[in-house]
Amino acid sequence: MISLPEFIYKDVNDVYIRENFKRLAVFMQNFPLFRGEWAFFEHTFDSAVTDLSIAHGLGFKPLDVILTGVSGAGVTGFGIITFNFDSFDETNINVTTTGACTVRFFVGAYKEESGRTGR
Q: Which H or E run includes 69?
């Protein structure tokens, strides 16, 4: 699971280095992957699948998917993946593919500053 690293910059004596750590912390707090809870997956499908459940280990129903890559042979030159959001639950995500492919993605829940995730 991806989580925001904690910078302990109060003990840094150099004011410029301390300020840079503070700025990095602010930047990272606003970076989408650090705002919420996410797990990364790379999954290879040997053929088309329909309504396949994949365990995610997050402990809550994921609301978001960030697809980072799809490769492999399919009907259109790539296997096409569909994330069946209505079938997601606290244990599994659910996918359908059109053919053999390797898929890379993050699954989880984006979180606003207010703490709202929509869960």
A: strand 64-71
Residues 54 and 106 in one domain: yes
- How many domains, the chain? 2
CA–CA distance, 46 with 97 (Å, rounded to integer): 10
18-31 confidence digits (pLDDT tens) = 888 888 888 877 77
Residue 108: Cβ-neighbour burial (10 angstroms; 0-12, 13-18, 19+): buried
Residue 119 falls inside a structural domain: no
- Say whether pLDDT at 76 is over 60: no
State whether 54 and 19 are in the same domain: no
What pLDDT is recorded for position 29? 74
58 and 100 fall within a common domain: yes
Provide the Cα torsion 116, 37, 84, 66; round to 10°: 100
Are the beta carbons of 29 and 112 closer than 8 angstroms?
Answer: no
Reduce the DSSP state of residue 57 to 3 states and report it.
coil
Same domain, 29 and 85: no
